[in-house]
Amino acid sequence: MKKFWRCFICSDIHYGVKPPEVCPTCLAKNAYVEVSSREAVKIMGAGGTTLTREEFRRAILAFAEKNEFEVNPDKAKVEMLLDGLFANEQNHGLKYCPCRLASGDLAEDLKLVCPCHFLIHETYKNKKDGECWCGLFVRRKK
Ligand code: SF4
Q1: Buried (b) or exposed (e) across 50-74, using 16+ Cβ within 10 A?
Q2: Atom 1 (ligand 1): residue with closest C-alpha?
Q3: Does one domain contain both 66 and 16?
Q4: How remote is the C-alpha of 63 from its chain's centroid?
Q5: Structure pTM?
C-alpha cells in the first residue's frame, strides 16, 4: 500500500510503498519518515504552485523528450486535448484524461491522470504508429 514519506532534512514528500534511499532533492540518505496524508498535502501546498497551460505544455514536452514518444505534432489536436484536461482539472481537481470517464474511486482514477501509463494501451504497444488513447502522445518517428 502506498504511503506518504517526508525527508526530515528538506521536507521533500514521496508517495510510494517505501521511501527512496536517497532524497532526490537534498541527497540525504535514509532520511524519510512516514507522515499522514493530511500532513503531506499541507506540506505540498506550502509552495502554492500552479501549472499554467504553457507550463503544462513545457512539462509534457520535457517528459516526452527523453522517451520513445513525442507530443503529437498536430497542434490543433493538442489544443483540443489541453482544453479537456484543463476543464477536468477545473471541474474535478485533476487533469483526468479527456477521452475516458473517471469512476469516482480515486485510487483507480489516478490511472486516468494525464500523462497516464499509455505504453500499455492497445493503441500504442506493438504499433509502429502507436499513440495514447486520445492521441496526445505518439510514437516518435525514427
Ligand atoms: S490517453 Fe493520452 S491524453 Fe489521455 S491521459 Fe493518457 S496520455 Fe493523457
Answers
A1: eeeeeebeeebeeebeeeebebbee
A2: 133
A3: no
A4: 10
A5: 0.88
Which structural domain, as residue segments, surrounds residue 76? Answer: 53-139
114 and 59 belong to one structural domain: yes
Q: Are 71 and 116 within one domain?
A: yes
Contact by Cβ (8 Å): 56, 48: no
pLDDT tens, residue by residue, 25-78: 999 999 999 999 999 999 998 888 889 999 999 999 999 999 999 999 999 999
**CA of residue 107 to ligand 1 center, whole Å:** 17
Ligand 1 pocket by C-beta < 6 Å: which residues? 81, 97, 99, 114-116, 118, 132-134, 136-137
Q: Are residues 111 and 131 in the same domain?
A: yes
> Distance from the CA of 23 to the center of ligand 1, in angstroms?
29
Assess whether 28 and 80 both reside in one domain: no
Structural domain count, the chain: 2
Among 119, 133, 138, residue to substitute to test ligand 1 (most atoms within 8 Å of Cβ): 133
